[in-house]
Specification:
- The chain is mostly beta strands and 463 residues long.
- The protein has four helices and 31 strands.
Length: 463
């Protein structure tokens, strides 16, 4: 705890880094049932990645951690106690500027983990940073990741770019999309898979599990017959977003890019947790493929346990909709060994125009239901990022009077900011969004736009 005097001093110092509101004459957002609460250009380093988390401090202060997309800035630490006026606390550069980026992060208590991915495979010192974020004065004075570091877990190697994505919510185990020093993919694009790292001692990290789609690593016993078919647009068979939630701690829900939706049995983690085993191998429960006939690039699997459903997004990765259609799917997961597609979210009414606007149009991230007191637990809605289509909110609408009828999906709100200055695509590129326990939406642009704090104003609840 800090004394009242030290807290006041810290806030005064933080005010020196106040982020000015930025507006562009003549530009206005496209919006429905959403309004802007506050925003920041992140000190001119507005390339937001796909990792954000909010930390609640005992004195009432709220800190937002933002991972960055590019190889210049790694981490922004922003005071959002007053969301209409976000204040920069500290901004830390990439550990290797121009070489590695910090695209993803995870927070549990006072431990922050940050993914570190190299631009090219074979570059050294890419992996996972584990940071101590328990002291506000240290956050303010930090000038590099090492100033806050517990440890670094190196996953670089001859065929590994390091860590692209991390899920860390329980204070014990981190779930990574990464390569490793000893990984040998059968195809250069299959260079990342799922591993679990024990963080119970944050200064002594160790791997406890790994899994990849059979056929994607040299030496797999099923080769050559199990080698996955390559898609026309080949983005590789590798894991991306991983979610492990307290409602089902024995399951991992994974978007596996060209491989589709994966559900893995990770019940062996309980033996590691209890000291009965040092490692284990996850088991595949089910795989749901969206391609063919649709383009691949399965990105996020967001389960809704109360409903036995999951929202799943396929990322748009090419400009001008060259890889369209990319969709947000609704999947029935009640029979987890046989997941079934039961719907898709509607595209924007002006989707054709958005395809021509510049940059990408289509889905990317879905707001995670983080098991944190500062996160919303959405059961009937999802907040999706659509690059130049902004932030879109979709709601499940049940059909009354008939049991087991799949709900239809309705778009109940959207917010598309104007393109910021110096944006290379001349369009917004909303990359990631989270929803806090008060219903505020925090979204970042992946090019130059920075942070947008939004409020949903529709009649149907954001729940």
């Amino acid at each position: 705890m800090h004394s009242p005097k030290s807290v006041l001093l810290a806030r005064l110092l933080a005010g020196l880094f106040m982020l000015p509101a930025v507006s562009w004459a003549g530009d206005s957002p496209e919006q429905k049932n959403m309004e802007l609460v506050g925003r920041s250009d992140l000190n001119g380093n507005g390339d937001g990645g796909e990792g954000m988390a909010i930390q609640q401090w005992p004195d009432g202060r709220r800190i937002l951690y933002i991972a960055h997309e590019g190889e210049k800035t790694c981490l922004s630490i922003v005071d959002v106690t007053h969301p209409e006026n976000p204040v920069m606390i500290s901004q830390l550069p990439s550990p290797q500027p121009g070489v590695t980026r910090c695209n993803s992060l995870g927070l549990s208590g006072n431990e922050l983990v940050v993914a570190n991915q190299a631009k090219k495979v074979g570059q050294t010192s890419a992996g996972l940073w584990v940071l101590d974020v328990s002291d506000f004065a240290r956050l303010q004075s930090a000038r590099k990741l090492q100033d806050l570091t517990f440890s670094f877990f190196d996953t670089s190697g001859p065929a590994s770019p390091g860590v692209h994505y991390v899920w860390f919510v329980d204070g014990q185990f981190a779930h990574l999309t990464t390569g490793t020093k000893d990984s040998r993919p059968t195809n250069p694009k299959d260079n990342q898979f799922y591993i679990i790292v024990d963080l119970r001692d944050p200064r002594k990290l160790r791997e406890v599990a790994r899994w990849w789609l059979p056929g994607t690593q040299q030496g797999d016993v099923c080769l050559p017959n199990c080698l996955p078919e390559r898609h026309k647009i080949d983005d590789g068979y590798r894991s991306h977003t991983i979610e492990v939630l307290p409602e089902r701690p024995d399951r991992a829900y994974i978007g596996y890019i060209d491989g589709g939706q994966m559900i893995l049995d990770i019940s062996g983690l309980d033996d590691v947790r209890g000291g009965r085993a040092t490692n284990f191998t996850p088991k595949l429960v089910s795989r749901l493929k969206f391609s063919p006939p649709y383009p691949a690039w399965t990105h996020t699997v967001q389960p809704i346990f109360d409903r036995g459903l999951a929202f799943v997004s396929d990322e748009s990765v090419q400009e001008a909709c060259a890889d369209a259609p990319k969709l947000v799917w609704l999947v029935d997961t009640r029979a987890e060994t046989n997941p079934v597609i039961i719907g898709t979210a509607p595209l924007a009414a002006n989707a054709a125009e958005l395809c021509k606007r510049g940059g990408r149009y289509g889905p990317h991230n879905l707001s995670p239901n983080l098991p944190s007191p500062t996160s919303a637990k959405l059961k009937n809605t999802t907040v999706a990022t659509f690059f130049n289509g902004g932030v879109r909110i979709f709601r499940l609408i049940d059909v009354p009077g008939i049991a087991n009828v799949p709900p239809r999906i309705e778009e109940v709100g959207y917010y598309v900011p104007p393109a910021p200055p110096n944006n290379p695509t001349h369009a917004i590129a909303i990359n990631h969004a989270i929803v806090d326990e008060h219903g505020l939406i925090y979204a970042v642009d992946r090019e130059t736009g920075g942070l947008y704090i939004l409020k949903y104003t529709g009649q149907q609840p954001l729940d």
